[in-house]
Design a protein that fits this description.
The chain is an alpha/beta fold. The protein has one domain. The protein is about 40% helix and about 20% strand. The chain is elongated.
Length: about 150
């Protein structure tokens, strides 16, 4: 098959390749979404499409009994959830992604990488990334995976 691309937009080209490859509509509508927690002190993930800074949330690092734990630990989650701002952040971020993901699917985006960052990448960003995954896992247009880039740094 020869495709003359000289007059095609990127959208038309994507459609032509989709037809050529035989990708079905169902396969195209499941947008692979990767949520990456990270620490700003180690740098922003270079492949992130969207980056959200959660350093304004209460920091478990400054609570001695939580310092060596991570955002996956029940005690850290409980500490974070007792502050109303955590729930508000999650609700607003979930609402935004429930709006954006279908738009990206319609646009034909191939994947979406969302970075959630805090200072060290162990507590706040991990907790928010875990909760966000649960919130958007049920979206019909998304196939969500989670990655904690800096959780092992001390």
């Amino acid at each position: 098959m020869i495709i003359d691309t000289s007059e095609l937009t990127v959208h038309q080209l994507r459609q032509a390749f989709a037809r050529f490859s035989g990708v079905t509509r169902d396969e195209k509508t499941k947008l692979p979404v990767t949520i990456v927690s990270f620490g700003y002190k180690y740098g922003i993930p270079t492949d992130a499409d969207l980056v959200f800074d959660v350093r304004f949330l209460p920091n478990p690092h400054f609570v001695q009994r939580l310092r060596l734990k991570t955002g996956k630990d029940r005690d850290v989650v409980k500490f974070m959830r007792q502050h109303a701002v955590t729930g508000q952040m999650l609700d607003r971020l979930t609402d935004l992604l429930q709006f954006l993901i279908p738009q990206y699917v319609t646009e034909g985006k191939s994947y979406l990488t969302i970075g959630i960052g805090c200072t060290g990448g162990r507590h706040r960003s991990v907790m928010i990334a875990e909760a966000l995954k649960k919130n958007i896992d049920a979206l019909p247009g998304a196939r969500v995976r989670l990655q904690h880039r800096d959780i092992s740094h001390k």
